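Recall the central idea of this unit: under ordinary conditions, the amino acid sequence of a chain determines the structure it adopts. In this exercise we apply that idea directly, starting from the sequence alone.
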Amino acid sequence: MSSVSMASHTTTKFSSNGGSNGYKDAPVVYDPEIIHQGVNLSDPEELEAHIQVLDVRERLRARRRRAIRLFSVAFCIVMVALMAGLGLVTRRGESNVTAAAGSTQSPISTSLPPSSSTGSLPLPPADLASKCSATALQSQQGFLVCEGACEVADCCTIPEEFALSCSKGNENACQQYLQYCSILQTTPAVSPISDEEIRSSIDEACIGLDPSSLIDSDCVALCRKGFCCFDDDTVGCEPNCQTYFNCAAAFQSQQQQQQQATSTTTNPISNPINQEDSVLKQQIDAICGTAIETVSPPGENSCESICAPAYCCFDHLCVPTSDVDCQDYSACYVLYADVNDVKEDITTANLGDEVHEACAGLLDIDEAISNEACNAICSPGACCFEEKMSCSNVDCAMYAECIVLHPNFIPVSKAEVTDACRNHNDANLQSEEPTLCEQLCSLHVMQCCFHLGGDCDDAVLLGDNSVYCDRYQACAVLGTDGSSLIQSHKDELEAACTGGTSTRSQCIQLCSSATCCYSSSVEESCAHVDASVTCSDYEACDVLYG
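Accordingly, the structure predicted from this sequence is:
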């Protein structure tokens, strides 16, 4: 039965009067379907029924049209995405070809630190020493600030043979970063830091900060891990970008600073007065004087500028570089001390008494850190409690009582190493615990002093390697060829390479002896370079090579 005949049974009342009056109210309808089917337009009931059928069909046609439009839009979106993806792959391929040809075009932007192929590494900020001091790292925010300031130089710890290394050509900048950033390897974060705490620290450091004050600020240091959130070319951004919401200005400031760094030649930081030490001391005394009133205003020849290299000699827990003799800069003390506390003559003879007066009676690290006098007087002697720092210009005997600021310092003497390793073979080797000899002779010590023949990656931090390695001569009992690692060294390597970003530099350093295990070139394989390396011992290094 046709839809029209079925609908003819429907009773629809157009007018209460019926008859011909109903025709006046009937709608005037023209539709090809009506003409085609020969619908009787004079019958209002049949006409109304047919209109209802047409309404249903019209709704179905409208649905089909909407579906077609949605499908068309979806198809266009998919095609655009495919074309964009194809273009991205093409650009990557072109970049790889260009890099292989030795081109110096713009580097591929990632969240990794700058490499040697991306230009000069910017010199560290002037206050890096204080940002990464033992005092600063006592707080969560201080740890984040130091970590952020040092992250740009992570590429310095990557061996030169790797593409991501920036050590070649940036020796001076890397040396300065490593001198102060190495503390992160031995100082764990106070406690796990949540995204909320990080964002709170960022907001506190960045909101309301004048754009001209952003360079080398705590805001930039805290935001550095989230810069990939603002870089459109970055592929894969690990941090939670909501945490770094207020870092846009810091990112722009850093971009401008990097552009300026690549457009100019980076010169090593040198002493502003290039003369003999005695002449230097006389000029500093003349410019800075012995009282705070004689300090000249800021400028090229001001006390502030001439004392800049000796920043770590005073009220900051950092270590001066080996070319700085703090005694020559004694007159700079007026810049860091209260006018009522300035001593006209601070000599080596009474330095021990000054240290005793400031630090004696302090019971723990917390009390010592909060004591400004002890911190200030002990700053130049911090190197006495850092095993990897050169301390040639400091009389450590005068700073003995400063150990209260360094509770984790456990000096190891040559005699102690010798005694421990003399009894190594007689120790209970069936025990799962490493012997004392194995604990003192760490994998780093063995690689530096034996496997690599004293060619340590961090030689700049160790001062004279021959003196350093002489202390560990007795470690030779553990084997000097590096052909296989003992279990304690495997455990040390595993801990370094599974500890996350806090131990990444240590992992890279320890794995540098096994780079031949991951070479794709036959000429650079271990069979040709160093057949003594057992690659299976370095499986923990897989995390560095994907």
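The radius of gyration is 37 Å.
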